[in-house]
Amino acid sequence: MQQIFSFFNENQQVIYMVILMIFLGIEVIGRVPSVLHTPLMSGANAIHGVVVIGALIVMGEAAADNYLALILGFLAVVLGTLNVVGGFVVTDRMLEMFKKKKQ
After folding, report:
1. Within 13 A of 27's CA, how many CA atoms are on the CB side?
2. How many CB atoms lie within 10 A of CB 80?
3. Which of 27, 41, 59, 68 has its CA 20 to 30 A from that of 79?
4. Is it the case that residue 77 has pLDDT exceeding 70?
């Protein structure tokens, strides 16, 4: 229990920042009109490319016997890649709606 309290005490500013970012994100997303949700979310998903790069770095720097880092890095690569591809698919489908239909 003492380790948990010391972790929170050492990372108090970061925890406060994350909590404030959560509230700010909820407020910003809540005020976006529904017409803009698709492009906003597809752009946000495309940003997950940074997650993929970070996960590759973590996996590259992890020791061969550190299975937790390797498994979490692998999961981050897979899920981040799915999110990036999904973001581009949503953007492509959204842009298809604005193209003229062939007669």
Report:
1. 6
2. 21
3. 27
4. yes
Based on the fold, state whether residues 27 and 75 are members of the same structural domain: no
The CA distances from residue 54 to 9, 59, 93, in Å, are: 26, 9, 28
Helix (H), strand (E), coil (C) string for the chain: CHHHHHHHHHCHHHHHHHHHHHHHHHHHHHCCCHHHHHHHHHHHHHCCHHHHHHHHHHHHHCCCCCHHHHHHHHHHHHHHHHHHHHHHHHHHHHHHCCCCCCC
The Cα 12–Cα 58 span in angstroms is 24
Q: Is 47 in the same domain as 23?
A: no
Instruction: For the full predicted model, state whether its pTM sits above 0.85.
Output: no
Does 94 score more than 80 pLDDT?
no
pLDDT tens digits, residue range 10-32?
889 988 999 999 899 888 877 77
User: How many structural domains are present in the chain?
Assistant: 2
